């Protein structure tokens, strides 16, 4: 049984709610459900009773929780002791980031990291959205700030670094361009841009759904945009609509030919630290703690 499976089971046993468990672990509801089903199939017993209104531990689930919890805590403590005994925080840390605010967070965190751990080095790399996992898996970065949600089972999601409202991007002259705000149902019949094919579908669908809450269609363009500059330029032609973090759009991408309008019922745009679980070490843990400290101070 993997540590991640233990963590998901024990968190659900504590929360008794799939949505809160997913939020607490920064993973999807689907991954929580899939993990529990896999455990139940492997163990040959139901661990939870589920209805549309409630989630409850079965008798077998309660026994499993009571037996597993001290073992899991022991594993965590053992890992912490080994990592603490592995030596001081030394060497090179390679950090990736997406977006302008993330760049400021990384800069501030890197300076504090080097000050607290003399002799260390930090190399920073900008990560485009279409490289969301590639540089991490290739070892070109050790840890990176990236767009949520993240559902990769071998990735640990650390502290959330930024959260901002999602804004519609529309060409000046578009029927919605002069609105103070919109809701998703206002986008019925429009055509979303399409990001690079390397961006996971679940990330695209999370922010840019194909249907409105009332079930009406929002089309998606066949033309793909690999960078944010490409997105803004394509939107300016009036062929598609786009979306992005309101804070970043107004500060860094303001143009006379596009408008940014808050989408009041859309999910917030959030970024968080992530790293490969098996690669976690004292450097990553130290940097993670510093990012948690400095991120709230960065405008």
> Strand order across the biggest sheet?
4-3-5-12-6
Low-confidence stretches: none
Radius of gyration: 22 Å
Q: What series of H and E elements makes up the topology?
A: HHHEEHEHEHEEEEHEHEHEEH
Task: Give the overall average pLDDT.
Answer: 89
CATH topology of the largest domain: D-Maltodextrin-Binding Protein, domain 2
How many strand units? 12
Give the count of helical stretches: 10
Assigned CATH architecture of the largest domain: 3-Layer(aba) Sandwich
What is the CATH first-level class name of the largest domain? Alpha Beta
- Biggest sheet layout: 5 strands, mixed
Shape: globular
GO cellular component, one term: protein-DNA complex
Pfam families: HTH_1, LysR_substrate
InterPro entries: LysR_HTH_N, LysR_subst-bd, WH-like_DNA-bd_sf, WH_DNA-bd_sf
Organism: Streptomyces venezuelae (strain ATCC 10712 / CBS 650.69 / DSM 40230 / JCM 4526 / NBRC 13096 / PD 04745)
List keywords for this structure.
Arc Repressor Mutant, subunit A; D-Maltodextrin-Binding Protein, domain 2; single chain; globular; alpha/beta; 299 residues; 10 helices
């Amino acid at each position: 049984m993997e540590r991640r499976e233990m963590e998901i089971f024990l968190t659900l046993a504590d929360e008794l709610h799939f949505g809160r468990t997913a939020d607490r672990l920064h993973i999807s509801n689907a991954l929580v459900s899939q993990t529990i089903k896999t455990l139940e199939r492997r163990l040959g017993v139901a661990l939870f009773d589920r209805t549309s209104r409630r989630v409850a531990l079965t008798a077998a689930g309660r026994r499993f929780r009571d037996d597993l919890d001290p073992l899991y805590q022991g594993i965590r403590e053992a890992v912490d002791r080994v990592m603490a005994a592995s030596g001081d925080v030394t060497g090179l840390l390679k950090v990736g980031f997406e977006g302008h605010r993330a760049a400021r967070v990384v800069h501030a965190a890197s300076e504090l990291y080097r000050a607290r751990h003399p002799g260390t080095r930090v190399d920073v790399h900008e990560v485009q959205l279409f490289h969301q996992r590639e540089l991490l898996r290739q070892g070109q970065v050790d840890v990176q700030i990236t767009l949520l949600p993240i559902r990769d089972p071998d990735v640990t999601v650390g502290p959330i670094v930024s959260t901002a409202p999602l804004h519609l991007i529309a060409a000046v002259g578009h029927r919605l361009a002069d609105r103070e705000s919109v809701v998703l149902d206002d986008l019925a019949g429009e055509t979303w841009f399409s990001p690079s094919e390397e961006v996971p579908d679940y990330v695209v669908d999370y922010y840019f759904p194909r249907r409105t809450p009332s079930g009406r269609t929002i089309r998606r363009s066949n033309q793909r945009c690999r960078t944010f500059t490409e997105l803004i330029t394509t939107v300016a032609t009036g062929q598609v609509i786009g979306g992005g973090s309101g804070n970043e759009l107004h500060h860094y991408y303001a143009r006379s030919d596009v408008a940014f309008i808050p989408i009041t019922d859309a999910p917030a745009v959030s970024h968080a630290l992530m790293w490969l679980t098996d690669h976690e070490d004292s450097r990553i843990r130290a940097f993670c703690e510093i990012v948690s400290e400095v991120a709230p101070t960065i405008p």
